[in-house]
Design brief:
Helix 1 packs antiparallel against helix 2. The protein starts with a helix and ends with a helix. The longest helix is centred in the middle third of the chain and has 26 residues. It is an all-alpha fold and 75 residues long. Helix content is 63%, strand content 0%.
Length: 75
Amino acid sequence: MVLAASVLLVFALEEAGNDYAWKSVPIITSFAGSGVLWLTFFGWEWSVSRRAKSAVEPIYPWRLVKDRFFVGMML
């Protein structure tokens, strides 16, 4: 999900204004798809982080979202 969301976002930002207009279907679809995938990724990470004894470990532990310093550093 992270890879696909990143690729769609980079494609939209790189190609908009050059090969495609900002209001073209491929650019809008790429932004929308990227947004949906990012929301899905963070939702999945939230659900995995909330499980007490899970065999699946999160890529982005939800406890980091609660740390103001870390979030500020990431932004």
